[in-house]
């Protein structure tokens, strides 16, 4: 939050300016540490344009990945925590992230721990992130912890981005095709329909289907559009409820082929997340609970929470996972080997690498299959439309 202030410095001169802080108390404390005697301090709300830009320019996963790597590098260079966050606040171009970093630097200067300063900004740092940093502070390995976090976030971002980007091309092609078809049905087909009706010749069945679709879109197009918007809003609201989230999560992992890709993506996230936390000496029950928070799928989230409850009761992790229908047998067996050998963290790292490769291969295969499939389907659609329109016209031309 930005505050404007008027104050007197140590020599009694009037000083005016602005300062970014989490709240007015932090702003006052920060100014007093500069030996300023405050006269007035007021919050700045900013212009409507600035607020609108801030709303759309959220802190993305990519921003946090880059920030974590920078923090890790600076800690390795033996730079103090306060100086790190002051330096990064000056260097970043992201307005919201700059405010977060300034606020954190002020909190750290006031005596707060890094994890506590991070916890005040859930819009930027997840509970998993905060938990990792808190564990690093308790173990005296904060520099290593930020290194683990940077590596983990980079791996997660790479896998998630690849899976997401694989869907951009087919969705673009599909939406473009639908747009072109709607344009043809509402502008081109009606003109050709008038010519066919004036000819008084018998219109083939498949051409009547095309004409019927055209008339339907012209007469009820707005109704269908409103219906689609209402259905989209209802689905969005439904996805916010616990039952809706669980239903959509179940559907996501049961989709043909895509479901297998999503399952591997979530399993990679689970294995990588747990191995990262274990490497930071976080207890296994806490690691399971934090992994459940970040897995981003209600089905796997329930499985992890149930496993955490089983482990609290004294059950091995492998036995707890074996009771879930979504955990594959290979993961259960590998975890059992890791528990028996005392190398669970190493086994989970191996599983994470395995599933990352599986996700990468599945995405590459999906992309290679989607492109020719779309070309064939679009060709068939366009071919049927042209045949339904041109064949009757050729018949008219031949008859005349």
UniProtKB/TrEMBL annotation:
<feature type="domain" description="Type II secretion system protein GspF">
    <location>
        <begin position="271"/>
        <end position="392"/>
    </location>
</feature>
<dbReference type="InterPro" id="IPR018076">
    <property type="entry name" value="T2SS_GspF_dom"/>
</dbReference>
<keyword id="KW-1003">Cell membrane</keyword>
<dbReference type="Pfam" id="PF00482">
    <property type="entry name" value="T2SSF"/>
</dbReference>
<comment type="similarity">
    <text>Belongs to the GSP F family.</text>
</comment>
<protein>
    <recommendedName>
        <fullName>Type II secretion system protein GspF domain-containing protein</fullName>
    </recommendedName>
</protein>
<keyword id="KW-0812">Transmembrane</keyword>
<feature type="transmembrane region" description="Helical">
    <location>
        <begin position="209"/>
        <end position="236"/>
    </location>
</feature>
<keyword id="KW-0997">Cell inner membrane</keyword>
<dbReference type="GO" id="GO:0005886">
    <property type="term" value="C:plasma membrane"/>
</dbReference>
<feature type="transmembrane region" description="Helical">
    <location>
        <begin position="374"/>
        <end position="397"/>
    </location>
</feature>
<feature type="transmembrane region" description="Helical">
    <location>
        <begin position="171"/>
        <end position="197"/>
    </location>
</feature>
<dbReference type="InterPro" id="IPR042094">
    <property type="entry name" value="T2SS_GspF_sf"/>
</dbReference>
<feature type="domain" description="Type II secretion system protein GspF">
    <location>
        <begin position="68"/>
        <end position="190"/>
    </location>
</feature>
<keyword id="KW-0472">Membrane</keyword>
<keyword id="KW-1133">Transmembrane helix</keyword>
<dbReference type="InterPro" id="IPR003004">
    <property type="entry name" value="GspF/PilC"/>
</dbReference>
């Amino acid at each position: 939050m930005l505050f404007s202030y008027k104050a007197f410095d140590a020599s009694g001169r009037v000083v005016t300016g602005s300062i970014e802080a989490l709240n007015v108390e932090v702003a006052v404390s920060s100014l007093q540490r500069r030996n300023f005697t405050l006269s007035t301090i007021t919050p700045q709300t900013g212009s409507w344009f600035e607020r609108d830009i801030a709303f759309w320019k959220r802190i993305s996963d990519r921003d946090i990945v880059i920030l974590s790597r920078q923090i890790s590098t600076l800690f390795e260079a033996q730079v103090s925590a306060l100086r790190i966050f002051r330096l990064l606040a000056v260097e970043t171009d992201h307005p919201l992230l700059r405010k977060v970093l300034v606020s954190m630097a002020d909190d750290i200067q006031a005596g707060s721990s890094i994890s506590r300063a991070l916890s005040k900004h859930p819009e930027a740092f997840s509970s998993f992130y905060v938990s990792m940093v808190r564990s690093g502070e308790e173990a005296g390995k904060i520099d290593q912890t930020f290194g683990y976090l940077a590596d983990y976030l980079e791996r997660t971002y790479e896998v998630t981005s690849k899976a997401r980007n694989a869907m951009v091309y087919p969705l673009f092609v599909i939406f473009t095709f639908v747009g072109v078809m709607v344009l043809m049905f509402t502008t081109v087909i009606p003109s050709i329909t008038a010519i066919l009706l004036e000819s008084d010749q018998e219109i083939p069945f498949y051409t009547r289907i095309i004409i019927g679709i055209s008339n339907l879109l012209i007469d009820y197009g707005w109704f269908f559009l409103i219906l689609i918007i209402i259905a989209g809003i209802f689905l969005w609201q439904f996805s916010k409820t616990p039952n809706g989230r669980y239903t959509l999560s179940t559907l996501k992992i049961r989709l043909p082929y895509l479901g297998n890709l999503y399952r591997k993506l979530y399993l990679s996230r689970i294995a990588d997340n747990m191995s990262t936390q274990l490497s930071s000496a976080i207890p296994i029950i806490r690691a399971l609970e934090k992994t459940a928070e970040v897995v981003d799928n209600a089905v796997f989230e329930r499985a992890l929470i149930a496993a955490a409850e089983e482990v609290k009761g004294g059950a091995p992790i492998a036995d707890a996972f074996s009771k879930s229908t979504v955990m594959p047998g290979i993961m259960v067996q590998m975890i059992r080997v890791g528990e028996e050998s005392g190398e669970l963290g190493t086994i989970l790292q191996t599983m994470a690498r395995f599933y990352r490769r599986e996700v990468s291969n599945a995405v590459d295969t999906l992309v290679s299959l989607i492109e020719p499939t779309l070309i064939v389907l679009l060709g068939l659609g366009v071919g049927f439309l042209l045949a339904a329109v041109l064949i009757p016209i050729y018949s008219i031309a031949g008859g005349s």
